[in-house]
Design goal:
The structure is a single chain. By secondary structure, the chain is of the alpha+beta class. The protein has one domain: 2-Layer Sandwich (Creatine Kinase, Chain A, domain 2), CATH 3.30.590. Helix content is 45%, strand content 11%. The strands form four sheets. Strands 1, 2, 3, 4, 5, 11 and 12 form a seven-stranded antiparallel β-sheet that branches. Strands 6-8-7 form a three-stranded antiparallel β-sheet, with helices on one face. Helix 11 packs across helix 14 and helix 13 runs antiparallel to helix 14. The two termini are 42 Å apart. Pfam families: Glu_cys_ligase. It catalyses: L-cysteine + L-glutamate + ATP = gamma-L-glutamyl-L-cysteine + ADP + phosphate + H(+). One of its GO terms (molecular function) is glutamate-cysteine ligase activity.
Length: 531
């Protein structure tokens, strides 16, 4: 443990400050495909009983009309957020009309590309903009890749905690504002995340296999498990490998994480820089919009990153404008696989470890990064997702080889005091218990989720689609057997109905034509729009 981490933990352990550790916010976004009981991707529209995908804050769709996204409100305790996620699942199952949720990051056996339905958000200009953005994603990356699902974990520390650290940070110039200090500490957290996130892939990666037709005949280095299943014997997360995200345009984006302005400049450049292959496609075909623009990125969120600095946007802002105006408010961790052994896709033990991990990254020293280190970080991450369970696997730290197991144990040792302090504040042992579970995975690679997935696939006849369908159906039946209490279900019905009413109001009151609307969006003169 570094001197800086020790000092910061001692500060926060004091009676006047320890309560701040329980006042940050957590939230979960969970993606999942709708399929029928035979494991066939749903072609039905988004169920109206779930509300409007455009305006329901709890239940929407991601890329495909068949790819549901469940969103919890932010909570101080992640346990409360997961309870809300459980409620959303039970409500959804009451409205899915026999369909079930595919509980794996890698998709079911998919139909031909042009039969994968793109998300539809109604006839309003805002709804059409979201749809056109997804048409652009289909052109740029293909529809198949967009059917991958994951867990996004939103994390913030209480602003008062940052104040405590700032007041005692003798390296900070007095002229640095509270907002800028907080932003730079979140950017420092992200630098550490990029150094150490390979550990999450080892501990929680749960997608070592994929349906054969996911590759669509492309060349690959996967091994054959059966006619319908490909895999990597030591892989942890094919979702986070380079299988699907093969795009020359994004390969040119190298965000700089040494300070917030540099990060903003790099993304702003990608959103405004034309890309010749996209220019050749154009924004319209036969008079219909097919992408928002022909730049490297249509919008900032198109950039695929394992973690993002975030800020809730106000009316008239783009994401980078909000970050520039008011700084970083929270981070969104995007690399977590769906846990196929939990019906929610994530469990409380994993979430408690994420809290330890992210607190550690925020409080630990975080030196500035370099191009060389960025290459090293990327290589470590990719080695872990492809070969993380290989005995004796070596990673690189500052140019020196180090065993994955050895390095992982060192990191967990350094996190132990963080877990102890979080438990002291919460009056529990859950953070330390989660740490113990992760130590067991480092001691025995067979205890990891990816190893368990492969064991169970083999036991079920070597079929990833067959095993996932059976597992998803069992979990669906468990949730369906225990529906929400009537009063709570009525609350969800009211939320869904209000969202449908809100969409109709938008469609009824909008003015102007869509081309003008898109031009205004490009000029960032529209209201609060998330596409």
């Amino acid at each position: 443990m570094t001197d800086l981490l020790t000092r910061r933990l001692q500060q926060l352990a004091s009676p006047q400050h320890i309560a701040l550790l329980g006042q940050g916010l957590r939230g979960v976004e969970r993606e999942t495909l709708r399929v029928d009981r035979q494991g066939v991707l749903s072609h039905k529209p988004h169920p109206p009983a779930l509300g409007s995908a455009l305006t329901n804050d709890l239940i929407t769709t991601d890329y495909s009309e068949s790819l549901l996204e469940f969103i919890t409100p932010a909570s101080h305790d992640i346990a409360d957020a997961l309870k809300r996620l459980d409620d959303i699942h039970r409500f959804a199952y009451a409205k899915l009309d026999g369909e079930i949720l595919w509980n794996s990051s890698m998709p079911c056996v998919l139909p031909p590309e042009d039969e994968i339905p793109i998300g539809w958000y109604g006839s309003s200009h805002i709804g059409m903009l979201k749809h056109v953005y997804r048409r652009g994603l289909a052109l740029r990356y293909g529809r198949t890749m967009q059917c991958i699902a994951g867990i996004h974990y939103n994390f913030s520390l209480n602003e008062g905690l940052w104040d405590v650290l700032r007041e005692s940070d003798d390296r900070v110039d007095a002229s640095v504002s509270r907002r800028d200090y907080q932003s730079e500490r979140y950017i420092a957290l992200i630098r550490n995340f990029r150094r150490y996130s390979w550990l999450l892939m080892y501990l929680f990666g749960a997608s070592p296999a994929v349906a054969t037709n996911f590759l669509r005949g492309r060349a690959h280095q996967l091994e054959t498990l059966s006619d319908d299943t490909l895999y990597l014997p030591y892989g942890t997360s094919l979702r986070m490998s380079d299988l699907g995200y093969q795009n020359n345009a994004q390969a040119s984006i190298t965000p700089i994480y040494n300070n917030l302005p540099a990060y903003i400049r790099s993304l702003s450049h990608a959103v405004s820089q034309p890309y010749p292959p996209y220019e050749a496609i154009g924004t319209k075909r036969d008079g219909e919009w097919v992408q928002i623009n022909t730049n490297i990125l249509q919008i900032e969120n198109e950039f695929y990153s394992s973690i993002r600095p975030k800020r809730v946007i106000n009316s008239g802002e783009r994401p980078v404008q909000a970050l520039s105006a008011r700084g970083v408010q929270y981070v969104e961790v995007r690399c977590m696989d769906i846990d196929p052994f939990d019906p929610l896709g994530i469990n409380l033990q994993a979430a408690r470890f994420l809290d330890v991990f992210l607190h550690f990254l925020a409080l630990e020293e975080s030196c500035l990064t370099s191009d060389e280190e960025n290459v090293e970080n990327r290589a470590n991450f990719m080695a872990t997702v492809k070969e993380g369970r290989r005995p004796g696997l070596q990673l690189q730290f500052k140019g020196q080889a180090i065993g994955l197991k050895e390095w992982g144990e060192q990191l967990l040792d350094r996190m132990a005091p963080v877990a102890e302090l979080l438990d002291r504040q919460a009056g529990s042992s859950q953070h330390r218990d989660s740490m113990a579970a992760q130590c067991a995975k480092l001691a025995d690679a067979d205890a990891t989720p990816s190893a368990r997935v492969l064991r169970e696939i083999r036991a079920a006849g070597n079929s990833f689609p067959g095993w996932t369908l059976a597992s998803s159906a069992r979990q669906a039946d468990e949730l369906i057997a225990h529906p929400l209490p009537a009063a709570k279900a009525a609350d969800f019905v009211a939320i869904a109905q209000a969202s449908l009413d809100a969409q109709r109001d938008i469609e009824r009151t909008q003015e102007g034509d869509f081309d003008t609307f898109v031009a205004a969006y490009r000029a960032s003169t529209l209201g609060n729009i998330s596409v």
